[in-house]
Amino acid sequence: MSLAPEAGTVERxxxxxxxxxxxxxxLNPPSPPDVWSAEPVATRIAAPGRxxxxxxxxxxxxxxxxxxxxxxxxxxxxxxxxxxxxxxxxAWALLAFADTPREFREGLLRxxxxxxxxxxxxxxxxxxxxxxxxxxxxxxxxWQRVPGxxxxxxxxxxxGLGLESANLDHSAALARELRSVGDEQAARVQDVVGxxxxxxxxxxxxxxxxxxxxxxxxxxxxxxxAPLSPLLMRGRPLxxxxxxxxxxxxxxxxxxxxxxxxxxxx
Length: 266
Ligand SMILES: [Fe+2]
Ligand SMILES: [Fe+2]
Prior knowledge:
By secondary structure, the chain is mostly helical. Helices cover 58% and strands 0% of the residues.
């Protein structure tokens, strides 16, 4: 018996998106249906489908060299792949956490749409800078970590309150760097993505609070599955204004700012 959800449902659409091996499908999935499974079964997909264009390697090269168009295209390619993994993992979570409120899963579905739009923005930038999807190797880092979340609280801690929050910090720093080398258009893409991710972080704040009963630094930290730590969940400097707009409590931001790995103790 196949684990594939019933044809014509949102669940099947999410399943097909994660497992597709077509780059076109990953970039431009069909509109999701209106119908949800009446009795969805929690299903954890082990690994995504990978289009032949993408060369997946265990370690990606470090980002450097924003001065050349090729260097900037390589960075955009890395961000493109982050967005792809984010889109896939939102679809993955919709299936893995089938027993959560429909409203939560509807939010995940909307975010798949946002992340694919971000992918298309980066794809256009890669093209403008004279490169193509697949010209650089990619690493499925998010996929190596996020499915380790057994509970939905952990998933929200890692995505909305972790990686997407860090992206608020990173996108602002990257926009400044891209402007400093004169690439206003690439900088603007960072501005737009950074602005739109505020809503995703707000989604994380709202649902972490709902699932965990509260949002404070320690409950968030405890929800991160090993070996993930707050270190990877922030950029420098922290975008305090954006994080506050997304609803992160000021004390949470203070503790995140202060946190160092040594504080973990013996
Ligand atoms: Fe995104
Ligand atoms: Fe996002």
